[in-house]
UniProtKB/TrEMBL annotation, chains A, B:
Keywords: DNA-binding, Transcription, Transcription regulation. SMART domains: HTH_LACI. Residues 4-58 form the HTH lacI-type domain. The keyword Signal does not apply. GO terms for molecular function: DNA binding. It holds the Pfam family LacI. This is LacI family DNA-binding transcriptional regulator. The lineage of its organism: Bacteria, Bacillati, Actinomycetota, Actinomycetes, Pseudonocardiales.
DNA sequence: GTTATAGATGTCATCGATAACATCTATGCT
DNA sequence: AGCATAGATGTTATCGATGACATCTATAAC
């Protein structure tokens, strides 16, 4: 009845089940003729490999887990995801996803548990994980884990894009144009990316002998950028703003314009992400781009090769467009 | 050595493995006291459930597969994905993803195979699947499958958002404003969504006694919208355009403006998706919104309940903003 | 001509949970 | 008291592939 098993294939091909197994695992020690016969039988019976059985007997599931935040709003995460999937697929691994609805420790623990139950051989955590609970560490102790953050989980490799670099590059660009002060609309404080970008901005200003103004915190969304933009617009003398994401940047632009501040004539703005629309909205946005796709792929590489936790630094490149200019009268 | 198994837990709790199993499956026939003892043992031993073993012995993997297109560019798909994940998670199902790099029959077959090997109990196909090959049908014959398309696979349920409605709503809005003709920048022809939206546009025009102009085909990206926009900008008398996605719409806007055509004063534009940026870019875009998240969730519901292939129609609502206006001198 | 040796193949126990079936209490009812 | 019945628990075989080990050729080396 049920689906044919290796034993059935073996019978049909006149060999042992073990040989069929060898054919599937591409063991070198199978004669071409036998292989052909086996494959023919597979085809004829419509045999389908049973991954659960392999996992059980071999202890290897050939699956990696990916922890995501449910709200898809945040751009770079989805690029990371694509990279993870691609790299995993290429290495013959399946990807099982666990999304968490919010940044909550309990939800995180549950997601990790679920993945562990599935026997994943590695976990990529693509949400900001500020602190790890003992239970999380219990799980990640047994499973190679990469967190795409600067955060530390005991035993978890950490692959960090140095987001400070992004903040530094953006801020320096504005300073180079002649601006004397740069304001910052940051991402939510729970996000390491947000904190790092803010740090980069701060460092850059400090290095230039400028006292950083208080940062304004958004939530990555255009709406939040708009709200913070309304505040900035009420402050005189603001000529340059670094927004931690393109979406927020456009929100800021809108708020400024509504208050009669032109971009880039009155105020220059730099974003981060280089989303597809950055070049096509108005004004085309100057923004910092980083290769998150490759980053995701790197995470998988780190996982599967078990290489040491090399904190890889993905370079940040600036796409200069029309949202930045020298300050008036410069 | 290895991880503790149910047998180990059973020994520690002084019960049989079967009872431990019952505790996990929340069988009603376990005394509260026994349950407590078992859970205590689980905790003490750090026992972790082995999903592969369950799958093998019960034949149920509690996993569903999701087929995606690798390029994350297309908005509504990611919303669908979120819906699928959420609904599956709620029902206690894991989600395994298989991404395909391009719309290619071979890649599709391989992805389906991979999911089938994993023993998924259902498959959600979230890429346009124009035609099904015999091999695909072989696979989907045994596994409940929902395609989020109008496409037909023998035996696969089809959950269709009626995208024609989106096209109709957008076009009608423009006609209502007084425009005498509406041009269309469509998505790629391989995408059912693209074809349906185009159909809706066509139908609407025809119903109004207007002969539809030739549609211009984009690829959902802002770039493609820009290219097609450049062409439209060279045609005199164009006063209204319906773009099949918001990103393309903004590309069109840019091209028009560069050629001195103001939006909405000279040309009105409607998009589809209502992406977060739609309200914050310039001009705020009039667009058609559909609840793709719910759509994804519905797909999972259909899969798990095995209900008949109810072609559910998600209503399309129009968000009127500033990219549309009556034609000049109206 | 023999002995090494690698290659091709087979046998059998095993991974861990579960389905199916068997027992063994309590409790209620006549 | 005697029996039916539901609830709680234990036993055993089983899912399908694989690891470890055994066997059996050919060919190479001496």
């Amino acid at each position: 009845m049920g689906n044919p098993s290796m034993a059935d294939v073996a019978r049909a091909a006149g060999v042992s089940a073990q040989t069929v197994s060898r054919v599937f695992r591409e063991s070198p020690n199978v004669s071409p003729d036998t292989r052909r016969r086996v494959l023919a039988a597979v085809d004829e019976l419509g045999y389908r490999f049973n991954n659960a059985a392999r996992t059980l007997s071999s202890g290897r599931s050939r699956t990696i887990g990916l922890v995501l935040l449910q709200s898809g709003g945040y751009y770079s995460r989805s690029a990371v995801t694509a990279g993870v999937e691609a790299a995993a697929g290429e290495a013959g691994y399946a990807v099982s996803i666990a999304t968490i609805a919010a940044l909550d420790t309990g939800l995180m623990e549950r997601s990790l548990s679920k993945l562990a139950d599935q026997g994943v051989e590695g976990i990529v955590i693509a949400v900001p994980l500020i602190f790890a609970t003992p239970r999380m560490e219990d799980i990640t102790r047994d499973i190679p884990t990469v967190t795409l953050d600067g955060s530390r989980t005991a035993g978890a490799s950490v692959l960090g894009i140095d987001q400070r670099e992004a903040g530094r590059v953006a801020t320096q660009h504005l300073l180079d144009l002649g601006h004397r002060q740069v304001w910052h609309v940051s991402g939510p404080d729970e996000w390491i990316e947000a904190r790092q970008r803010r740090q980069g901005w701060q460092d850059c200003l400090t290095a230039a002998g400028i006292e950083p103004p208080p940062p304004l915190e958004g939530d990555w969304s255009p709406e939040s950028g708009y709200r913070q933009g309304q505040i900035v617009a009420m402050i005189p003398d603001v000529t340059a703003i670094f927004a931690a994401s393109d979406e927020m940047a456009f929100g800021v632009v809108r708020a400024l314009r509504e208050r009669g501040r032109a971009v880039p004539d009155d105020v220059s703005i730099v974003g981060v992400d280089d989303i597809a629309l950055a070049a096509y909205c108005s004004p085309p946005l100057t923004t910092v781009r980083q290769d998150f796709y490759r980053f995701g792929a790197a995470a998988v590489g780190l996982l599967l090769e078990g290489a040491g936790a090399a904190d890889s630094l993905v370079p940040a490149s600036l796409s200069v467009r029309d949202s930045t200019a020298p300050p008036r009268g410069h």
